[in-house]
Design brief:
Blueprint lengths: L1 H5 L11 E3 L46 E5 H6 L5 H6 L37 E5 L23 E7 L4 H4 L6 E7 L5 E11 L6 E12 L4 E12 L22 E4 L10 E4 L2 E3 L7 E2 L7 E3 L5 E3 L23 E3 L16 E16 L2 E16 L7 E7 L7 H10 L3 E6 L8 E21 L2 E21 L4 H8 L1 E4 L2 E4 L2 H5 L15 H7 L7 E22 L2 E20 L1 H4 L33 E21 L3 E14 L3 E13 L5 E12 L3 H5 L3 E10 L4 E9 L8 E13 L7 E18 L2 H9 L9 E2 L8 E4 L1 E21 L7 E17 L8 E2 L11 E10 L3 E10 L9 E2 L13 E2 L7 E12 L3 E8 L29 E9 L1
Parallel strand pairs: 3-5, 31-35, 41-42
Antiparallel strand pairs: 1-2, 2-4, 4-5, 6-7, 6-45, 7-8, 8-16, 9-10, 11-15, 12-19, 13-14, 16-17, 17-20, 18-19, 20-21, 21-24, 22-23, 24-25, 25-26, 26-27, 27-28, 28-29, 29-32, 30-31, 32-33, 33-36, 34-35, 36-37, 37-38, 37-39, 39-40, 40-43, 43-44, 44-45
Length: 982
């Protein structure tokens, strides 16, 4: 397989995007879009193409909401193993998640989940549909996984860059991404793709096939498809700067915190090669008179090289280093875990789909479809087990005699110790998502009162089963017990007799000595590590009608109306060591009782403490959309007014209204159209926000402002069933020049957008909740208790509708197509799409916290500019395409004040920093296709042709300093494949 994949050395095939101004025309008529070939003849009732910006299906209707349409030929030319990557390259999409994001995480459950984010508003505010229908979520946030869609059957993808809640319901705040499948495909087609990076990793193999045929005089239509995709992923690496696959660009770039705020110097300093000074790969004494003694792989003590010319001060600090986050620069980097995280999760997906439709009358069809898919991923969050504050007894028999003697000389019996546990097995996170989706429906036409009406009714039942397992994560209290060893009857054993009785085996953490299999089984039970089992179900019943009930002076009035019922449910169960139970059964073979573990509250693992939970909600809604033709004349052009309203009742939060008003005007000026739309859109709280599985954290020194004393508090992180829907006001204004007679190959568009989102669901800290109540805000006083006996004090931390976001900017598209350029056969097309974010202001809604404009903060997801440009020559048999992707320069964060000296006082809202520039990126992709006969096409592609390294995205900890949501992190990728269609 590897040898075959490596044959994909050169070539390209990129998409030629077709962006339509919300036109009610199929993708083939979009500017520069090649004709989409289909086989079989659809009945007249299916001739109308619904672009997702509206429910109106009348031929010739122009929706006021901008819609970009990507056809199947453009999808094929982009030559990606997952259609998600092709769509996510659009400039209007910012912050989408995929296999390269979330790889540093252990507990999120989002690893490998491919979901779209329009306008940088996060995936939960983008509504993703399949054939105009909702899809069951792949996670309790409610977002679906694009990897589970029947990708080979996708005819086109409509991307609506504007609010569409009035037409399609909740979550369409940033817009809608609608995948349209070929329900009448006939024949047999397939695709085989292989790819590999320049570094010899992420070996990928994709096999897709689809078959369709009509029976019973073209009344019965059967479509089948299946696909298998295996992506090996990239990583993991090792400690220090030893990144996976011989990549040399990782520099442990960090924002060093001096801890000083008012000395005239910047609080934060941008530096490469950050070294944490609390721990080392095989152990470091980090406090007291022996501070600075480390251990090599053989357990031999040596003086640690701190970097920065640092010297241990005996109090846990190091001279010449950065105390705020305990870093030095340079020195011994061998214990830093950041480089060990996977750059891309390994991913395996299997998808099967079938649709059977029967035309029981002319222009009327009954159908059923079944989609069964499975996606598995795995990633390594970081190597070893970072433990920066372990108390070690000087009598520990594993300690070299030299150190025990030094203890005696110094008059100490114990010391503080930090280690990366470099000899431990590296943890792995495995996810397994299985989806079962069943749809049955009726659609077609009927005549009433002398006019034709369209109808579409369907019922969908979706199930997602998600399992997460973590291997080689330690149980923290067991680890501590195993490291505290003594000599008993001539044998080295665990010091705690209760731990010994429960099976504790001692571990030598002073050097690179791998724990015995028995010790590992006790500290990090491989087979019985953290796990989470989640079941989500979605039921949707929908009925929609559209037609032209009567005519006005400028043409027929178009109407669409309908209703929908939806039920969302989830239940999650986790292992008892993480979730906690009233008592762990002493007879449990997998999870035996252990006095060292907290059986009631759980949270015993170092990471991956999943919890139990469940919840559901129901939604009832109805909508009406009307299109009024206002002008239709040669002198004035053609104009229409479009409006929609939807009423929605949520079982958790009551009733909410959404609406939109907009219009288009095809002016009498040749090829010029104006469009405008304003809307009220909503996002209802999802299952996670409403019914989050509770987690418990102990806060030992919590400040009680009512009594002005420190108390121990249990922080209960829970959902909030009192959340209300987020409400957005979305406005767009645009002008389009489309195929003027004086230059028919030209298309230009400019669209301004402005979104104001209020009641954004966000979470306060325990300290903020209590403080706000103390300051007189009664809304925060019902969720905590501080006057109980020790052990009963608690604070419930839950989300509230606090924050508000404001973002605005504009989209630009330009394209031109030459027929027979320079006398050559075929066509040459150039196209560019760009999005500029003018502002993205996040207001936390918390007193004393200033709003921050995140536009241009490249450490996030909202760069000032994002561009995509494509140049394609297509002779009909041969095509050559060059694509450029560009992200503008930005900052680490716009809250910083840049200064070198004479700095103002550094504050939480506006910290000072010595450098705040984050370079953008420019990528070039190139490739080609060649048709062999009418049925066979070979293709090749090179992504990131010049092997552009990612720009450092500095953290304030030891994480992997990159931003995979914006930057290419894998390097040059070679792809090659073959497609056939019979």
């Amino acid at each position: 397989m590897k040898a075959a994949i490596q044959l994909a050395s050169v070539s390209l095939a990129v998409m030629a995007f077709a962006s339509v101004a919300g036109a009610q025309t199929p993708a083939p008529s979009a500017v520069g879009a090649p004709q989409t070939e289909t086989t079989g003849q659809a009945p007249a009732g299916n001739a109308d193409i619904v672009v997702t910006g509206s429910r109106i299906t009348t031929s010739g209707f122009n929706a006021p909401t901008p819609t970009t349409v990507i056809g199947e030929e453009q999808i094929a030319k982009n030559a990606q193993p997952n259609i998600f990557t092709t769509i996510a390259q659009l400039p209007s999409l910012q912050g989408s998640t995929g296999a390269a994001t979330g790889t540093f995480s252990t507990s999120s459950g989002l690893q490998g989940l491919s979901s779209f984010s329009l306008r940088g508003l996060q995936p939960i505010r983008t509504l993703t549909l399949l054939d105009g229908q909702r899809v069951v979520g792949a996670n309790v946030t409610g977002v679906p996984d694009i990897s589970m869609f029947p990708q080979l059957l996708v005819k086109r993808v409509d991307v609506v860059t504007g609010g569409a809640s009035a037409s399609y319901g909740s979550d369409a705040v940033g817009g809608v991404v609608n995948f349209i499948t070929d329900t009448r495909f006939e024949g047999f087609k397939g695709n085989i793709l292989g790819s590999i990076t320049k570094y010899g990793d992420d070996e990928t193999g994709l096999v897709q096939a689809a078959w369709g045929k009509s029976f019973l005089d073209n009344r019965l239509h059967v479509v089948l498809s299946g696909e298998y995709d295996h992506e090996e992923g990239v990583g993991p690496g090792d400690f220090g700067t030893d990144l996976a696959g011989s990549r040399d660009w990782y520099r442990a770039t960090t924002l060093m915190n001096t801890g000083q705020t008012n000395n005239g110097l910047p609080q934060f300093n941008y530096r490469d090669y950050a070294q944490p000074y609390q721990y080392a790969r095989y152990g470091l004494i980090n406090n007291g008179p022996l501070q600075g003694i480390a251990f090599d792989q053989n357990g031999t003590p040596y003086n640690f090289n701190y970097g920065s010319g640092g010297q241990p001060l005996g109090n846990g600090q190091v001279s010449n280093c950065f105390r705020g986050n305990s870093f030095c620069v340079g020195g011994d980097l061998s214990g830093a875990p950041g480089s060990g995280a996977s750059l891309k999760s390994a991913l395996e997906r299997i998808n099967g789909y079938t649709r059977i439709g029967y035309d029981f009358a002319d222009d009327n069809e009954a159908y059923v479809s079944v989609n069964v898919a499975q996606v598995k991923t795995s990633n390594q969050p970081s190597p070893g087990y970072n433990r920066p504050s372990l108390t070690v007894q000087c009598a520990n028999p594993f300690l070299p005699q030299l150190i025990r003697d030094r203890c005696a000389t110094a008059g100490i019996t114990q010391f503080s110790f930090g280690t990366s546990n470099g000899a431990f097995p590296d943890p792995r996170v495995h996810t397994d998502r299985r989806q079962y989706r069943f749809v049955g429906g009726l659609k077609g036409k009927f005549a009433m009162a002398g006019t034709d009406w369209n109808y579409d009714a369907y019922y969908e039942h979706g199930i997602t089963i998600s399992d997460i397992r973590v291997q080689d994560i330690v149980l923290q209290n067991r680890y501590v017990a195993a490291t505290n060893a003594i000599t008993l009857n001539g044998a080295i054993v665990c010091a705690d007799p209760a731990a010994r009785a429960a099976g504790c085996q001692p571990i030598n953490v002073f050097g690179g000595f791998a724990p015995s299999s028995a010790a590992l089984a006790y500290v990090a039970p491989h087979e019985n590590g953290p796990f989470q089992h989640t079941k989500l179900t979605q039921d949707v019943a929908s009925l929609n009608f559209s037609g032209n009930p009567f005519d006005l002076w400028a043409g027929p009035v178009s109407v669409a109306f309908g209703g929908e019922y939806r039920r969302e449910y989830y239940r999650v169960n986790a292992d008892p060591y993480g979730a906690g139970v009233s008592a762990i059964s002493p007879n449990s073979e997998d999870y035996p009782a252990d006095p060292l573990l907290n059986s009631a509250q759980g949270s015993n693992w170092a990471a991956g403490n999943y919890k139990n939970g469940h919840g559901k909600y129901d939604v009832w809604e109805g909508y009406l959309e009307v299109d009024l033709p206002l002008i239709n004349s040669d002198s004035m052009g053609r104009a229409n007014l479009n409006g929609a309203a939807r009423v929605t009742h949520y079982s958790t939060s009551g009733t909410v209204w959404t609406w939109k008003v907009g219009g288009t005007w095809d002016t009498p000026l040749d090829g010029i159209r104006l469009r405008a739309v304003t809307s009220r859109d909503v996002r209802a709280p999802n299952l996670s926000e409403l019914f989050a599985a509770p987690t418990v954290t102990t806060l030992p020194n919590f400040n009680d402002p009512f009594r002005n004393q420190a108390v121990q508090v249990f922080q209960n992180t829970i959902g909030n069933t009192n959340l209300k829907p987020e409400v957005a006001r979305n406005t767009e204004l645009g002008i389009v020049l489309s195929r003027p007679s004086w230059l028919p190959g030209l298309s230009l568009s400019f669209d301004y957008y402005n979104i104001k989102l209020n009641g954004v669901v966000s979470t306060l800290s325990a300290d903020q909740i209590v403080r706000f109540c103390f300051e007189g805000n009664q809304a925060f006083c019902g969720g905590f208790q501080l006057d109980g006996a020790q052990g009963t004090n608690f604070v419930n931390v839950q989300p509230f509708n606090l924050a508000s976001w404001k973002t605005s900017g504009f989209d630009i598209e330009a394209s031109y197509q030459w027929q027979q350029p320079l006398g050559l056969p075929g066509s040459f097309t150039v196209r560019a799409l760009g999005t500029h974010i003018r502002k993205f202001i996040v207001n936390a809604g918390i007193a004393g916290v200033d709003p921050v404009d995140q536009a241009g903060a490249n450490n996030g997801n909202t760069p000032d500019w994002k561009w995509l440009a494509v140049q394609t020559y297509d002779s009909g048999r041969f095509s050559l395409t060059v694509q450029e992707r560009w992200i503008s320069d930005g900052t680490f964060g716009n809250q910083y004040v840049v200064c070198q000296s004479s700095c103002p006082t550094s504050t939480t809202n506006h910290p000072t920093i010595d450098y705040n520039k984050m370079k953008g990126a420019f990528y070039v992709d190139i490739g080609a296709t060649f048709k062999i006969g009418d049925s066979l096409t070979i293709y090749g592609k090179v992504d990131n042709l010049f092997d552009k390294d990612p720009v450092p995205a500095p953290q304030t900890n030891t994480g992997l300093d990159i931003n995979p949501a914006l930057y290419d992190t894998l390097g040059r990728i070679y792809r090659a494949g073959i497609r056939f269609n019979f």
